[in-house]
């Protein structure tokens, strides 16, 4: 996890400012945190101090470990120097550390040298570190020698640590104000605010204030990358049916602002967040208590469990804001055999204009649409599909696309592709990562006239075979596979999956490109597959195999073939309906467990007015007598449906509930 690439952060704040809570939020996504407690135990009779310490301990999750350095102030630097790159440390706080440092028990000592050792340990620390410290520079000069010694030493420590840290934030009344962003970020942000047009992704304030650290990323190994403009986000209006007035589109246009390059480094072993392990099973168990007629939701209860885990609640809401990412990038050589020249560009232009199956389905679902042009891929059978630099750029580009969506409030991403040769590239990735045989995972080639082109299919198989033979002695790392075989669209899709995982945005996969990206992302961050949902495999052999390897069970078996991304949009209304139903239905009265629910099941007697007639009195009724033969419904003359009552009315349509 990282805050725009920063590896060490100093959180300053006054008493009761919320600095500790803010620091804890910065490391909330880390699976394990080493909490370094620096404060001494204090006077046993000081119950108020003991209560404060107990409150701090109670806030720490059970997965955190606690170490105390109050016994030896120099030990804090040793802990930082020995920390591993995959660790996350939270030091709370430097005020307690300075208190111990000035304790007569540890005097005489060179306080200046000890503070310098701490600052140097922070600079060379391989782990991610968040340090908390009181800010005393705004207070009055203490009137006692001991008070002045404390403020002088703490002020010197804060200055030295702030100089060593990548970022510094001041928390005032619970509100963070960043004092020290990365130098490149500060300069670029000022320039972007004045000169860059509003066409790229925003930098989320929440991401820069409470964003998670990324394993192995720091300003030392992160190189600034040239800014690449992100594509426009399109919001199409569904076509108006005859004799109907046009309505408002479901999704408002997405605002796009300049994004500052952060020098993100994507590498294997990244620590990204996982969905909630408890919310999913709780949501499925809750379904059994709802007032649902019949046997329930069947296999679609997995949708509820998935949404609950990714939203972190046992009562998940239906996805409101959805964005479709259509990746358009062709593969040269035999991978695109049988494809019509220019067809993928025509599909992309059609989507941008709001025409075609994908754009129409997106409009009907209220989903925004972003057409993404990915790098063209060289013939895999003769040379690498992408260079190493292109792979790095494509991964960061996909990550930025996911961040842009998260900053815009998107709750679900739908991944699709329309490039020529994508199926062969996905087959090559599966052969390299799962040991699949290319002919077994390559779908049949269908021409525009609906005929099967076996000759083109054999050319594609040969291209994949030759590419695998060419790379038989090459490494099989994630980036190597993307460079040699995957190409631009698979690399960008992989970046999207990683970026969406980092921002806790679920992804609805549909087609071979998305599944191939899921296979590659396992080596970069194994958590990514847990944020993916597969609506339908469409009988595609590559999708079925990759889904089986990734543990993604398709929810439906509609066997649609409308193009990658469009199949998922067909299933989206059904998935939304299931989530809305699960969230809205009440608990069954028999399980409500309260007296009002029990009384609701009992028959209630109608109250009688004061002038009610006796039970044996005849009711006063002057209407027609429906028992008279004149009003009886005639029997049907022949076979066919019969009515069961004279008061039944035909259903005129669905009623919104």
Structure write-up:
With 657 residues, the protein is α/β, with parallel strands linked by helices. Helix content is 40%, strand content 10%. The chain is built from 22 helices and 13 strands. Strands 3-2-4-5-1-6-7 form a 7-stranded mixed β-sheet, sandwiched between helices. Helix 2 links the parallel strand 2 (34-37) and strand 3. Helix 13 runs parallel beside helix 17 (478-502) and helix 14 crosses helix 17 (478-502). The radius of gyration is 32 Å and the shape is globular. The relative contact order is 0.09.
Strand-helix topology:
Layout: E1 8-13, H1 19-26, E2 34-37, H2 47-59, E3 65-68, H3 75-82, E4 88-92, H4 94-101, H5 111-124, E5 128-134, H6 145-164, E6 167-172, E7 175-180, H7 183-195, H8 205-210, E8 233-234, H9 279-287, H10 301-311, E9 322-328, H11 343-352, H12 356-365, E10 368-373, H13 388-407, E11 412-417, H14 422-434, H15 438-441, H16 454-470, H17 478-502, E12 507-509, H18 512-524, E13 532-534, H19 541-550, H20 566-584, H21 589-592, H22 595-600
Parallel strand pairs: 1-5, 1-6, 2-3, 2-4, 4-5, 9-10, 9-11, 11-12, 12-13
Antiparallel strand pairs: 6-7, 8-10
Gap between N and C termini:
43 Å
Largest sheet: 7 strands, mixed
Unreliable spans: 182-225, 241-262, 595-603, 607-618, 626-634, 636-657
Any idea what the shape is?
Answer: globular
């Amino acid at each position: 996890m990282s805050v725009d690439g920063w590896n060490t952060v100093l959180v300053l704040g006054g008493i009761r400012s919320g600095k500790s809570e803010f620091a804890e939020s910065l490391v909330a996504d880390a699976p394990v945190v080493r909490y370094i407690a620096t404060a001494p135990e204090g006077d046993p009779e000081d119950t108020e101090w003991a209560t404060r310490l107990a409150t701090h301990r109670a806030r720490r999750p059970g997965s955190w470990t606690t170490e105390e350095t109050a016994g030896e102030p120099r030990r804090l630097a040793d802990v930082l120097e020995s920390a591993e790159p995959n660790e996350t440390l939270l030091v709370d706080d430097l005020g307690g550390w300075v208190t111990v440092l000035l304790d007569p028990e540890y005097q005489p000592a060179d306080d200046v040298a000890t503070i310098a050792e701490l600052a140097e340990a922070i600079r060379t620390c391989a782990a991610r570190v968040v340090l908390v410290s009181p800010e005393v520079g705004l207070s009055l000069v203490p009137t006692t020698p001991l008070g002045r010694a404390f403020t002088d030493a703490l002020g010197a420590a804060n200055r030295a640590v702030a100089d060593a840290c990548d970022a510094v934030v001041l928390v005032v009344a619970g509100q963070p104000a960043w004092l020290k962003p990365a130098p490149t970020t500060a300069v670029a942000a000022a320039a972007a605010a004045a000169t860059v047009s509003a066409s790229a992704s925003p930098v989320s304030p929440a991401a820069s204030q409470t964003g998670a650290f990324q394993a192995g990323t720091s300003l030392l190994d992160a190189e600034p990358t040239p800014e690449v403009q992100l594509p426009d986000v399109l919001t199409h209006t569904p076509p108006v049916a005859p004799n109907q007035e046009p309505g408002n589109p479901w999704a408002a246009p997405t605002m796009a602002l300049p994004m500052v390059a952060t020098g993100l480094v994507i590498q294997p072993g990244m620590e990204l967040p996982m969905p909630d392990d408890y919310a999913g099973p709780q949501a499925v168990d809750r379904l059994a208590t709802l007032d649902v007629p019949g046997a329930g939701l069947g296999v679609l209860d997995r949708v509820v469990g998935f949404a609950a885990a990714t939203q972190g609640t046992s009562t998940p809401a239906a996805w409101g804001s959805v964005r479709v990412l259509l990746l358009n990038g062709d593969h040269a050589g035999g991978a695109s055999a049988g494809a019509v020249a220019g067809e993928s560009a025509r599909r992309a232009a059609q989507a941008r204009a709001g025409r075609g199956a994908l754009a129409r389905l997106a409009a009907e679902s209220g989903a925004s649409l972003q057409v993404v042009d990915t790098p063209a891929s060289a013939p895999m059978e003769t040379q690498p599909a992408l260079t190493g630099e292109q792979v790095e750029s494509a991964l960061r580009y996909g990550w930025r696309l996911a961040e842009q969506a998260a900053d815009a409030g998107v709750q679900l991403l739908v991944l699709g592709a329309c490039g020529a040769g994508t199926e062969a590239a996905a087959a090559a990735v599966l052969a390299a990562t799962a040991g699949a045989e290319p002919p077994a995972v390559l779908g049949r080639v269908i021409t525009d006239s609906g005929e099967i082109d076996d000759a083109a299919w054999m050319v594609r198989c040969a291209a994949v075979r030759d590419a695998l033979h060419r790379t038989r002695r090459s490494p099989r790392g994630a980036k190597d596979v993307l460079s040699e075989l995957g190409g631009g669209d698979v690399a960008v899709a992989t970046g999207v999956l990683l970026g969406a995982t980092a921002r806790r945005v679920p992804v609805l996969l549909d087609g071979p490109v998305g599944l191939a990206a899921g296979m590659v992302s396992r080596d970069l961050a194994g958590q990514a597959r847990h944020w993916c949902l597969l609506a339908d495999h469409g009988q595609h052999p590559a999708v079925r195999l990759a889904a089986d390897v990734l543990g993604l069970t398709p929810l439906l078996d509609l066997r649609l073939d409308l193009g990658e991304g469009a199949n998922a949009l067909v299933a989206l209304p059904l998935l939304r309906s299931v989530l809305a139903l699960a969230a809205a239905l009440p608990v069954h009265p028999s399980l409500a467990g309260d007296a009002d629910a029990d009384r609701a099941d009992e028959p209630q007697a109608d109250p009688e007015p004061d002038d009610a007639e006796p039970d044996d009195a005849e009711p006063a009724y002057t209407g027609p007598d429906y028992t008279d033969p004149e009003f009886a419904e005639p029997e049907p003359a022949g076979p066919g449906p019969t009515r069961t009552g004279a008061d039944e009315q035909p259903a005129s349509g669905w009623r919104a509930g």
